[in-house]
Protein 1
Amino acid sequence: MKTFAIGGVHPPENKFAEKQPIEWLPPSGTVAIPISQHLGVPAKPVVTKGDKVRVGQLIARGEAFISAHIHASVSGTVSKIDSITDTSGYRRQAILIDVDGDDWMESIDRDQTLISDCSLDAPEIVKKVHEMGIVGLGGATFPSHVKLNVPQGKKASYLIINGVECEPCLTADHRIMLERGEEMLVGITIQMRALGVEKAIIGIENNKPDAITHLTELARKYPGITVEPLKVKYPQGAEKQLIKALVDREVPSGKLPIEVGCVVHNVGTSLAVYEAVQKNKPLIERVVTVTGVSVKKPSNFMVRLGTPVSALIEAAGGMPEDTGKVINGGPMMGKALNDLGAPVTKGTSGILLFTQEETPRLPELNCVRCAKCLTVCPMGLEPYLLAVLADKRRLEECEEERIMDCMECGSCLYICPSGRPLLDQIRVGKNLVGKMIRERSS
């Protein structure tokens, strides 16, 4: 069975919510919608305090090429534009809206009837995806219109759809494939038209046999779309690893997938593209998994953007008494939250509640030169060396050792028997090296 060649680990899957259907979580109270929910330049607000807004209305415009529009996820009154603590732990500007009813823009088609045929040509599709604020929902939140706009001189051969969801605990994508598979497939055909490709491959790990069977059957009606089962191995959902597993092409260091003729999109993104193009619906909500060993009701919620994390936890049965840490994302790449009032954003795939027993790290010991971090690194890096160089601020050497190729998957931290904070040190080093590179090129 196919998989990527270098590194990888096998953490416990703990997919507690995989059998739980998607539930709709109604908005209430006040939502805080950050103006930067994407990779790139923050959007600029086009509303002010006191303005009445409707669901789907543009409230912040992404003016740069690598940026994304932000739309109101609720109807109500803009109470203020202020800095709030988001799920990254940083203070960022957001538009706060007091919810009043659920009044949608008339331009949005709320009928659940499937619309299979798309009459738009490639430039029109890219424009619509841009207008609707669609970004990658797998975590990176890269603006989708940029990926669909193939640079001059490049050619896409494959559209690869990430249905791997290799991060433990998360099940949002799994449920989308089971419950919204037909719409997702139409979204894939729309992306194929935009890219001018004839082949799309949906990669799904074989721990989701129901999704593999379901989509394989549905895909029979859609020429050029195939479903490829993959061996379970983390982090197979990363772009470069998924491309290697499915089409045996290697993306060069520092380059994007289009260099090898591939464009990668997540299954949630494909559903959002369908809704944007066929229903004129902006990205105002997404599926979020709320789970954990002690969570009373592990769930998959369809949540309006801007909803506080605390509301999701309450809907899943409340905060367990033995909670030691709340994670935004999964256990491998997620980050701890310091404020449960932080809002759900386009990049929020899951909220994980760790017990106190699960939260302590191993005591930090000296490196024993076991080389386990080398063997599991999917990028073929030397994590122990990068961590030391970053800690000593030897940034030029960090750059030479390809620290910017690190995807921060956490495999090295997971496998280290000495409990060394390899990922933490490498993250600091990446930030410093990135700043150095930007200053050098300015």
Protein 2
Amino acid sequence: MAKKTKKPWQGRFSKKTHQFVEGFTSSIELDNRLATYDIWGTEAHAKMLEKVGILTNSELRKVLSALKKVENKIYSGKMKWNHSLEDIHMHIENELIDMIGDTAKKIHTGRSRNDQVATDMRLYVRDEIIDVVDSIIILQKKIIKLAEKYSDSIMPGFTHLQVAQPVTFGFILMSWFFMLERDKERFVYSFGRVNTCPLGSGALSGSSHKLDRKYVAKLLDFEGITDNALDSVSDRDFIIDFISNSSILMSHLSRFSEEIIIWCSTIYNFIELDDEVCTGSSIMPQKKNPDVLELIRGRTGTIYGQLINILTIVKAQPFAYNRDNQEDKKALFDCGDTLLNCLSAMSLSIDSIKLNKDVAKMASKKGYSTATDFADYLVNKKVPFRDAHEIVGKAVAFAIKKNLDLNEITLKDYKNFSKLIEEDIYKILTVEGSVNSKKTLGGTSHGEVIKQIKKAKKLVSTKR
């Protein structure tokens, strides 16, 4: 019966590993979360070994029974992690050897820890993608619900953080929805790339045993097998994909957060957040701070950092497995945990938003936000747009000088800018008229926002 400190490669060495080196090279404190995936992979590999005649049916039954006991031991908290065993693969293998002896020693036939960890990581990323996509859909549904509620509620649209044109809050929310839809598509697309099985690639060159790789892939619900053994154990593109997609998604969550933080500030006061997603100040009793959203904004940098981390790990690595790749788990696990937490935090925040309709509508009237509509009015009277732009610019300058809004300028004064301006100009200069005139596909008019909401509902209900 093997001792739990026995290493799979110790036959080559005449000295014991230095205690510091054991701790420095061990990954068990991190990769023990791969236990389920390692057990699945080992079950599939063992079934394949029985299929090709390397294990007997009796031996396979022993292996599968022992694996179930190991899994129970791990998840009951009874497993003792040992740095001398380095990683989750060796912990499981040594437990099996303790339980069923020499039969367990056959399991590694045709398999290396190189293709084993590549398989575990693909299985892990595959599940993480599913969790992320599900979380995006939950957030999208909350956005749709809020957009329906405020589909015709007017607020300012900004460019350069200056009031630009009146829009509706529902329209802004739907812009967020479609950003998230692209994020979801990126993850779904990358699922196809991760969903191929590298097991059976061995250390780097394949195996001299007649392994049935396609059978293993089928048992693990992979769509197929990887094409080249060397690439199979070298590849970490699927991790880069996941963290890159996460970085783009986090940039969107950060932008949503920034907008909400600005809107709920005392100066803007467009929206209110529920107390349950805010915190207070230790010194200023009146404060209500959007800390959840600020943390989403801050943790975006954490995921960006992990993208640089994984890109640096794989940069200039020679092919096949190198121990640098042990560090990919830190980047991946931290990224996935952070992203899923931030998606949950954003969903909770979106749920708590209440629009201060009157304040937002009043703000939309500032900054001469209907000036473009004024120019379009002149264009409809056959004035070339550049000329119309100049006429409106002069009218705005006049209004600023006289401290007037555009709808406060008299028709007599308007005639000084263009004889084509008539009484109907005042209908054009309202924020309601501006919003309702934007009837191009994808526009902010109420009808177009409703169309966007209908499309969004179909997108979140469509099976992936």
Protein 3
Amino acid sequence: MNEFNDNVAPKTETFVLNMGPQHPSTHGVLRVELDLDGEKVIRVRPIMGYLHRGIEKLLESRTYAQGSPFTDRLDYVSSMNNNYGYCHAVEELCGIEPPPRANYIRAIVAELNRITSHMVFIGSLANDLGAVTGMIYTFRDREEVLDIFDLVCGARQTYNYIRIGGVAQDIPQGFEEKVRKFLDRVPEFMEEYADLLNGNEIFNVRLKEVSVMTKEEALACNMTGPNLRATGVPFDVRKVDGYGAYPEFDFDVPVGENGDNWDRYQVRYKEILESAKIVRQALDGMPEGDFMAKVPKVLKPPKGEIFSRTEGTRGELGFYIVSDGTTKPYRVHIRRPSFISMQGLNPMCRGGLIGDAIAAFASIDPLMGEVDC
């Protein structure tokens, strides 16, 4: 009879666990293959493409103006910023300069949309960690901004409001009053989120010093936006490129220290407050004048190519467009920050537990419509 030896660790066999594409914590149709040694994650492989709709090819078969509504369907939680990125690229290609009033309106709606997107992130993160109340709180407050968007463009999710050369229409009566009323409430509900989550012991244990990513790893994965800034890199396209009206606003770029789940949460939390500052400054300094530049009815950009980038809610949103001189783009490629961020899952999750992988998925704030395109 063999004696049991306490000094010899039992050997385990690694196995593959499929998480998704139907798993609620994968934020849509994302499939993730986890190589596991017991509960320990050895390697993560994100498998995408379950929501692919061929938007780049659809843009190539439409005129430049007809392409704008398709960008709403990329990051459909942040459609204003998608409209902004696409129109900004076409304007650079054509040499079109939007009027100052249009740039201010764009900044207002883009930053309001950034706030709502980060609200969805906070609610989703809380929900993935078992705090369903967090989702209820954030969606309650998000409704106020959706009502404002409904007022300005008649839609609540896919807006097609920012157009090539400016915006579809000027801000309506009552818009400024509603926006200022919402801004006055921002500190109130942000404090409520902090009371609900920041001091919660489970929330802290699941996020702090978990799924750490170094700035070197983040840069090697080409990550941008809050996920990069959480590692301590203060890269923000609004500051670096200074497009639109952003050089005229005073705002900070929040950064983290450890690159863990907590920092990725905190950066977005603080960005809500910074976006509110931008919106208030834009309202205070709103210039008079036209809301749309003079754009030819038949738009034919000169032959050439352009890569244009803006700061989307999830990172650097880039549009590469090739023009052959006709009314339709010859080639379009979209740099989607959510797609790029998928590369970070493996270094973030490696060495952790299955439960940590769930928190890591949520902390990078993936949006599958933007991942698959």
